[in-house]
UniProtKB/TrEMBL annotation:
Name assigned to this protein: V-type proton ATPase subunit
Keywords: Hydrogen ion transport, Ion transport, Membrane, Transmembrane, Transmembrane helix, Transport
Ranges annotated as spanning the membrane: 6-24, 36-56
Predominant location category: membrane
Family: Belongs to the V-ATPase e1/e2 subunit family.
GO CC term, one of those recorded: proton-transporting V-type ATPase, V0 domain
Keyword ATP-binding: no
Topology term for the membrane: Multi-pass membrane protein
Organism (species): Ensete ventricosum
Presence of keyword Iron-sulfur: no
Highest rank taxon of the organism: Eukaryota
InterPro entries: ATPase_V0-cplx_e1/e2_su
GO molecular function per UniProt: proton-transporting ATPase activity, rotational mechanism
PANTHER family found in the cross-reference section: V-TYPE PROTON ATPASE SUBUNIT, VACUOLAR ATP SYNTHASE SUBUNIT H
Length: 70
């Protein structure tokens, strides 16, 4: 599973969470906007954390140097 597939999964989770918040917590336009902003921010932050960790493991900055005995 690569970067693009997991990005699609995060987008789907964000859309589903946004729809569920709109359906379950309908308390007015101002509150709905606040909840939607929180859901989008949380989804983007979780995706960015996952992407940074994934890309850091894909190409590490420090390359281990193996000795001849290993």
């Amino acid at each position: 599973m690569g970067l693009s597939m997991t990005t699609i999964i995060f987008v789907v989770v964000g859309v589903v969470a946004s729809v569920l918040v709109r359906l379950c917590c309908n308390r007015g336009p101002s509150t709905n906007l606040f909840h939607l902003t929180l859901i989008i921010t949380a989804t983007v932050c979780c995706w960015m954390m996952w992407a940074i960790v994934y890309l850091a493991q894909l190409k590490p900055l420090l390359v281990p140097i193996l000795s001849e005995g290993e």
